[in-house]
Specification:
With 357 residues, this protein is α+β, with helices and mostly antiparallel strands. It folds into 2 domains: 2-235, Cupin (Jelly Rolls, Sandwich); 239-350, no CATH class. Helices cover 34% and strands 23% of the residues. The chain is built from 11 helices and 16 strands. The chain has helices spanning 9-21, 43-49, 68-72, 81-89, 106-109, 189-199, 239-247, 252-261, 268-283, 289-306, 319-337; strands at residues 2-3, 5-8, 26-29, 54-59, 76-80, 97-103, 128-134, 139-143, 150-157, 160-165, 175-176, 179-180, 202-206, 210-214, 219-224, 228-235. The strands form 3 sheets. A 9-stranded mixed sheet has the order 2-3-14-9-16-7-6-4-5, covered by helices on one side. α9 runs antiparallel to α10 (289-306) and α10 packs across α11. The longest helix is centred in the last third of the chain and has 19 residues, at 319-337. The radius of gyration is 21 Å and the shape is globular. The chain binds 2-oxoglutaric acid and fe (ii) ion. The site of fe (ii) ion has 3 residues, from loops.
Length: 357
């Protein structure tokens, strides 16, 4: 297991670049020390201030790798923040309800001054804030985010443990799309420790006021040690990563390509060859979206073989899980490939292939 370094703000200014370049997680202390947000590190104070803020909450955070039916019946409900925690405490709400990765409500954004991050990111205007609220013992199942953005996750109040694993470890994680079938939420502390040794992962518990940097495409699992409020600031991806994220369905093949693009330039020629192939396959004409999906899947298999990621021979996959996941992947691909007419082509010449921030 690897520990995550903690930086004080003075050091952050000079050192953050090295963490970004080497795709290494790090934690900042006191990012909003001089702003109003830092006055809300006490849970009850924050709850008082934002009691009436409307939240969209939803059960579960890992429906893809559970039952197929669950994936089709995700139901959101609207509730105000104060009532949300009250109802969980009095057990009239399911404790697994989370407000997860929803665009931060405007009353909360009004209490933020993003300029406090100006020294960390090139362009504050491109940062998108997402809000998270959840009660003690909740969790976010192990996954990676297919937007391939950098993330600064600020812990407003409560404590949360972050586990991070880099994309090279995918073959040990039984991945399905961007979800792992490994349920870290069921591990004992000592199981987790051994597992993190196996996958060379990082672990840290954030205190209120801490901010963790998650590099793009990283696997993460989050455990709510206490009732918690936090904001994920997502920002900064290359034009190429944006195209891969929005045009292609998620797969560890793509995740790995994005990760490798952030690495040393002398490894790039094979990566670029795979990417150009993918775009060429994307731009072909197909009779329907499933044909397009299957052609892209075939290339993904080739890329996975290149990186030695054999995702379908995981030792612990039950056959029905594989079947359901394959089914789900195929259905979801409609979202990406239904519009398969000539207009939907990627202009390879317009993409700076090696602009990888
Ligand atoms: O804190 C959480 O519940 C999940 C965090 C997460 O997945 C993210 O910031 O992308
Ligand atoms: Fe995430």
């Amino acid at each position: 297991m690897r520990n995550i370094n903690q930086l004080h703000l003075n050091d952050a200014k000079s050192q953050f670049d090295n963490y970004i370049k080497s795709r290494t997680p790090v934690v900042f202390k006191g990012l909003f020390a001089e702003s109003f947000l830092e006055q809300l590190t006490d849970f009850n104070t924050a709850l008082d201030r934002w009691f009436n803020v409307q939240l969209s909450v939803c059960n579960e955070h890992f429906y893809d790798v559970r039952r197929y039916e669950d994936a089709c019946t995700q139901v959101y409900q609207t509730v105000c923040l104060g009532e949300f925690f009250q109802k969980i405490r009095e057990k009239s709400f399911n404790p697994r309800l989370l407000s997860s990765a929803r665009v931060a409500p405007k009353d909360i954004v009004a209490d933020l001054n993003m300029e406090h991050m100006a020294f960390l990111v090139d362009d504050v205007a491109e940062i998108r804030p997402y809000f998270f609220a959840g009660a003690k013992d909740n969790f976010a199942h192990l996954h990676y985010d297919g937007d391939y953005k950098h993330v600064l996750h600020y812990q407003i109040c409560g404590r949360k443990t972050f586990v991070l694993i880099d994309p090279t470890q995918a073959r040990k994680l039984l991945p399905s799309r961007n979800w792992s079938c490994v349920s870290l939420e069921n591990f004992t502390p000592s199981d987790l420790h051994s597992f993190l040794d196996m996958v060379d992962g990082w672990k840290i518990t954030l205190e209120p006021g801490d901010t963790i940097y998650m590099p793009p495409a990283f696997w993460h699992y989050v455990a709510y040690e206490e009732d918690s409020l936090s904001i994920a600031f997502r920002y900064g991806r290359s034009k190429l990563a944006g195209i891969l994220s929005t045009k292609f369905h998620e797969d560890v093949a793509l995740q790995r390509l994005v990760y490798e693009l952030g690495g040393p330039a002398d490894t790039h020629s094979e990566i670029l060859r795979h990417l150009k192939d993918l775009i060429e396959i994307y731009n072909r004409q197909y009779q329907d979206f499933l044909h397009k999906f299957h052609s892209i899947e075939a290339k993904y298999r080739e890329i996975r073989a290149y990186f030695d990621i054999d995702i379908n021979s995981g030792y612990f996959f039950a056959p029905d899980v594989i079947a359901e996941n394959t089914n789900l992947r195929m259905l979801r691909s409609g979202h990406y490939y239904s519009d398969f007419d000539k207009r939907n082509v990627i202009d390879v010449l317009s993409i700076p292939m090696l602009d990888n921030r």
